[in-house]
Amino acid sequence: MKRLKFLGLAMITITMLVLAACGNESSTGDSETENKNENASAELEGSVVIDGSGTVYPFMSKMAENYMTNEQENVSVEVSRAGTSAGFKKFLVEENGTDFNDASRQIKDEEAATAEDLGIDVKELKVALDGLTFVVNPENDWAEELTQQEVIDIFLASAGKKNWSDVRSDFPNEPIKTYGPNENHGTYEFFWENILDEQDLVAEANLQQEYSTLVDLVSKDKNAIAFFGYGYAVNNKDKVKIVKVDFGNGPVEPNLDTISEEGDYAPFTRPVFTYLNVNMAKEKAQVLDYAIYTMKNAADVASETGFAPLPEEELNAVVTELEGLK
């Protein structure tokens, strides 16, 4: 009798253990399902549309490539390069505007007013530093170093520097051929406003929409000199020669060490930006996610694409602000 009672208790104990195990398995299964659901919710899809600065284009196209490859393969990030000013016209529209506008200058008062009129909440994201760089033809062996004032005078209409010999008497008596980006570009506006102090550019200047065209033109013209962002210059050193600029303490070559708002190349250094449509960031999760990813990875991508990176603490502060939009 005692034996039967013992067997009965044993069976009850085994049954309870089996049920407990099943319960744990079910709980684990539920947990795994929840984790899968959480992962699925982190997988985004849709598009992110970016236009604007040709100078910022290499930075942003690399960022987009990294994001689609390593972060969100179901999100399509489209990056174009109409130029800063032309890009703002696509960004600041009532419907179907771009999500970001890359800019090699800050937004103008009239552009900010347009945004306010349209009810578009715009957030400025400073992503890196660029050095306005002057390049000459590889065969040019006389203008490898120029003073800040000589560079300005070459492009300034009122200076009257027609030939290289007008810049220095020992330079060749050959006509100077000046090149640069056209008025669609923030680089042109930065140069005209900050370097030429809004004075007239030489009438003969050949201004182009595409930076690749400028590189090609300089590479074929021994008397050429052009200005554009450092990234295009350093990535085309086989076609153009970077000019060292003397700001008063000896010639300085732009590079990732000298390009700084307080460094040796400071007079020709400028910040570059992307502007976020906050309305779209709140409406489309992939837009906000891309903004956060950009600021988290800005320093690395800047260095890879010819820009001087910003301090990590400055970038991290912006990431915190963006995460607050969630």
UniProtKB/TrEMBL annotation:
Coiled coil: none annotated. Gene3D superfamilies: Periplasmic binding protein-like II. It comes from the Bacteria. InterPro entries: PBP_domain, Phos-bd, Phosphate_ABC_transporter. NCBIfam families: ptsS_2. PANTHER family: PERIPLASMIC PHOSPHATE BINDING COMPONENT OF PHOSPHATE ABC TRANSPORTER, PHOSPHATE-BINDING PROTEIN PSTS. This is Phosphate-binding protein. Keywords: Cell membrane, Lipoprotein, Membrane, Palmitate, Phosphate transport, Signal, Transport. SUPFAM superfamilies: Periplasmic binding protein-like II. Belongs to the PstS family. It comes from Fredinandcohnia salidurans. Residues 39-276 form the PBP domain. It is found in: Cell membrane.
